[in-house]
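Quick check before the chapter quiz. The format below is the same one you will see on the exam, so make sure you can read both the input and the output lines.
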Amino acid sequence: MTDHRKPLSPPPEVETDEFSVEMIRGWIAERGLCCNLNLGHWHRHSNVDERQAWGVLLADLCRQIATELQDVTQDDPSESLRILVEALLSELGRDGAPQTDEDSEQRDPQAGGDSPAGSDAPQRQ
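Here is the expected output.
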């Protein structure tokens, strides 16, 4: 069996910026997102609201994904960003409410939900 895991190296900017800090490390494992988060960084080191800061980080991450996808898929970054935002809103629920067990059952791939069954995309657990 081919090992499809691809270790990622830190970006070159990390080596040159003495104030760089790792905020998230993530994997897809056992059909879901598994990650370690540096929660509390902004709370401990600044007056910034931690929730707001994570929102900005996620927005920056979406922009970077959309931009870098162009090299892989040749898709327009603006269109990719639009699709990413739609997917985020759909996954979060339009009101941003936390997921319930009922939501998970409705999206269960074995039950015919709309999650990408069998893909490498994270699945709700």
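If your answer matched, good. Confidence is low (pLDDT under 50) at residues 108-119.
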